[in-house]
């Protein structure tokens, strides 16, 4: 049975090779195949083009690990991770999928009121759906802003609001549908159009240099009380609750990464504002931060300096200990993630126009940490930065993927699969790649 699926999968993959995709040849995305360059099995989870999974640090899985929530053009859908069967969630067309909490099977989503202006500036209703009983209830209302996370004890929602904000770049609905963001455009000093990555940098600098009032706030799920956690006229983003500590919030000072000390934590009562990483050299950058599943570590992309030396860096919250794990230029990724046991990492690669300028970086990787120790050296201390390296393995050939769409990868709770979104076959679809090769 496995051999038959492999043969059929290779045939489907051959019909949908990067060459065909680049030439614009219409193809039907394969459903189940073996990547001919890596030997790993890939399964398409979505049925409709235009589908996507959640942002890389948002939690889309049930606590039992049996279901995954994704967004499709028809609404939210649940993927059975044993059978890969897709079940639509009724009455969710146009809804914004938010997350599953770590401890319940209540799926959260929001609906934005119709009207003019940006969706973030319009009122929202937040719903929670018990996926087993099918019962839905309204759990919150927002006059403005967006919900980003839920506390570990499911008592608070975490949100971010901008007052008087403007989009980084005017965009069409098609841009959002295809790439999940604006199709950035800007001209260089010579008047010629810049590439997507460079144009995005220009727009981010403009936003960074424009003071705009913002707030990070909580919404009590029992009382509806709204409390401001942190307010600033600096650009705030990436707000997320610790997966285990219901009072700990991480957020970032957004902007050009080489100009900001980006990563911060704070308590829900506004106390304990703490900077997690301080830059030590010109053009050092750190960002795209996320918690480990046990809440003990914060992991992030670190470059010392930008575009030259690449690390998956860790900060241990209890001790402040730093752990830097080296990745090579071609292995740098738009986003990294970590499995539930904290021992397996993954990255989604990047194209040559992005910060690493990797000549062969369009791959999805799994990383296994390897400790670096000199047997002749007896003295070791946790007071200093611990330097390890990552042994990498390629999982998916992403050469036909357009990285204006971020793959936003995540491990399934059983660590057997990595879920990601890709346009490698034309339309956006959600896929899962098996971490281990069959027969290995």
Task: Please characterize this protein's 3D structure.
With 440 residues, this protein is mainly β. The protein is 9% helix and 36% strand. The chain has four helices and 28 strands. The chain has an eight-stranded mixed beta sheet with strand order 18-19-20-21-25-24-23-22, with no helix packed on it. A hairpin with a 5-residue loop joins strand 20 (310-316) and strand 21. The protein starts with a helix and ends in a 6-residue tail after the last strand.
How much helix is in the residues?
Answer: under 10%
Shape: globular
Quantity of strands, as a count: 28
Characterize the quaternary organization of these chains.
single chain
The termini sit apart by 17 Å
Computed CA radius of gyration, to the nearest angstrom: 21 Å
Adjacency order of strands in the biggest sheet: 18-19-20-21-25-24-23-22
Give the secondary structure arrangement, pairings included.
Blueprint: H1 2-15, H2 18-22, E1 32-34, E2 41-44, E3 67-72, E4 75-80, E5 86-88, E6 96-99, E7 106-112, E8 124-130, E9 136-142, E10 146-150, E11 156-162, H3 173-179, H4 196-208, E12 214-220, E13 226-232, E14 236-241, E15 248-253, E16 263-267, E17 274-275, E18 285-291, E19 297-303, E20 310-316, E21 322-327, E22 336-338, E23 345-347, E24 363-370, E25 386-397, E26 410-411, E27 417-422, E28 429-434
Parallel strand pairs: 21-25
Antiparallel strand pairs: 1-2, 2-28, 3-4, 4-5, 6-7, 7-8, 8-9, 10-11, 11-12, 12-13, 14-15, 15-16, 16-17, 18-19, 19-20, 20-21, 22-23, 23-24, 24-25, 26-27, 27-28
């Amino acid at each position: 049975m496995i051999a038959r699926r492999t043969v059929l999968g290779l045939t489907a993959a051959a019909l949908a090779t990067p060459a065909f995709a680049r030439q614009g040849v219409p193809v039907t995305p394969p459903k189940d195949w073996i990547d001919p360059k890596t030997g790993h099995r890939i399964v398409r989870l979505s049925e409709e083009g235009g589908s996507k999974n959640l942002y890389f640090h948002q939690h889309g899985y049930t606590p039992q690990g049996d279901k995954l929530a994704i967004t499709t053009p028809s609404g939210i859908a649940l993927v059975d991770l044993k059978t890969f069967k897709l079940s639509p969630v009724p009455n969710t067309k146009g809804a914004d999928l938010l997350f599953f909490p770590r401890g319940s099977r209540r799926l959260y989503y929001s609906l934005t009121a119709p009207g003019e202006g940006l969706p973030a500036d319009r009122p929202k209703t937040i719903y929670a759906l018990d996926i087993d009983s099918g019962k839905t209830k309204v759990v919150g209302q927002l006059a403005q802003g967006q919900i980003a996370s839920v506390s570990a004890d499911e008592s608070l929602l975490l949100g971010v609001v901008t007052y008087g904000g403007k989009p980084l770049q005017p965009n069409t609905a098609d841009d959002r549908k295809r790439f999940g963001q604006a199709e950035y455009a800007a001209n260089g000093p010579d008047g010629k159009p810049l590439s997507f990555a460079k144009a995005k940098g220009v727009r981010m600098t403009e936003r960074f240099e424009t003071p705009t009032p913002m707030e990070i706030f909580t919404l009590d799920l029992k009382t509806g009380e709204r409390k401001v956690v942190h307010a600033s006229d600096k650009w705030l983003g990436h707000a997320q609750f610790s997966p285990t500590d219901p009072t700990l919030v991480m957020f970032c000072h957004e902007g050009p990464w080489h100009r900001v000390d980006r990563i911060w934590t704070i308590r829900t009562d506004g106390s304990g504002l703490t900077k997690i990483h301080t830059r030590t050299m010109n053009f050092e950058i750190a960002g795209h931060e996320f918690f480990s599943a046990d809440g003990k570590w914060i992991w992030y992309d670190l470059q010392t300096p930008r575009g030259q030396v690449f690390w998956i860096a860790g900060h241990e919250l209890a001790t402040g200990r730093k752990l830097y794990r080296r990745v090579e230029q071609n292995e740098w990724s738009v986003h990294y993630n970590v499995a539930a046991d904290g021992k397996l990492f993954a990255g989604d690669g990047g194209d040559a126009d992005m910060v690493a300028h990797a000549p062969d970086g369009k791959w999805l990787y799994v990383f296994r940490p390897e400790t670096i120790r000199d047997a002749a050296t007896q003295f070791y201390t946790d007071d200093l930065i611990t330097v390890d390296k990552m042994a990498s393995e390629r999982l998916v050939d992403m050469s036909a993927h357009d990285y204006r769409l971020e793959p936003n990868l995540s491990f399934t709770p059983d660590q057997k699969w990595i879920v990601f979104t890709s346009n490698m076959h034309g339309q956006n679809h959600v896929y899962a790649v098996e971490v281990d090769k069959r027969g290995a």
